[in-house]
Amino acid sequence: MMDQDSARQVTILKVVLLVVIVGGWELSARFGLIPVFWTSSPSLIAVAFWESLKENEITYHTYITMQEALAGLAAGAVVGVMLGLVLGVSRVLGAALEPFVIAMNSLPRVALAPLIVMFVGIGFASKFLLAFSLVVVPIMLNTYEGIKAADPQLINMMRVIHAKRYQVFYKVLLPNCVPWIFSALRVSISFAIIGAIVGEFISARAGIGYMIDSAAGAFDTTGMIMPLIVLMVLAFSIDRAFVATSNRLLRWRDEALS
């Protein structure tokens, strides 16, 4: 853990970097160093966001996309954790299915988007399934690896004191894989959003992907960048929430290591 002085320095550095990036972008656009048509500018994006916010357009489309992404994330997390625990606890099943899981993970699920849309239509289900498919395998693999990474000495110690299998699971295996699960969840936030947006690109009547596709058809760079920045801020906020939750739940690990 960082002390207060180090944390303050990191915060100041973050603010300075943000100001330099945004300020440099704005000044470069204003003085013609970069083409505004292709890159837009922070001021144009801010104006577009305010206009869209007044018309309730960005809020509506963001709600649609986040609903699809978070539903896929939640379902993928539950199914992925359950499958990962089953594979990790059962040595025979885990060893037998591991190559198939790796092969499934190497499959570009985004490429299946047209098939999914064709099977279930252009509504909520296609975006949900795309987000789910991008999330479930990484979470399953991380959970599985978390079980495999459990300290063998702790497991042997539990066996020496004649602990039951369920006691070994709850006292050693499950706590060990919790950090792995949270790590997978942080990565999966962006995967779920990508899945929802790809589905909206293919066919949708609402959502951030629909907004970007419509703006691209009108060669509106600002209209494409603005919703992406909104999604980036939301994804970052969700990530910070995961980090805060993880730190609270894993406080015992930091205390044990200190």
Overview of this protein structure:
By secondary structure, this protein is mostly helical. The protein has two domains: 34 residues; 221 residues, Orthogonal Bundle (MetI-like fold). It is built from twelve helices and no strands. Helix 4 crosses helix 10, helix 5 crosses helix 7 and helix 8 packs antiparallel against helix 9.
CATH topology grouping of the largest domain: MetI-like fold
Q: Provide the structure class.
A: mainly alpha
Name of the CATH superfamily of the largest domain: MetI-like
Number of domains: 2
- H/E series: HHHHHHHHHHHH
Give a concise summary:
The protein has 258 residues and is mainly α. The chain contains twelve helices and no strands. The chain folds into two domains: 34 residues; 221 residues, Orthogonal Bundle (MetI-like fold).
Walk me through the topology:
Elements: H1 4-30, H2 36-39, H3 42-54, H4 57-89, H5 91-106, H6 113-120, H7 124-148, H8 152-160, H9 165-202, H10 208-217, H11 221-249, H12 251-257
Helix pairs in contact: 3-11, 4-5, 4-7, 4-9, 4-10, 5-7, 6-7, 7-9, 8-9, 9-10, 9-11, 10-11
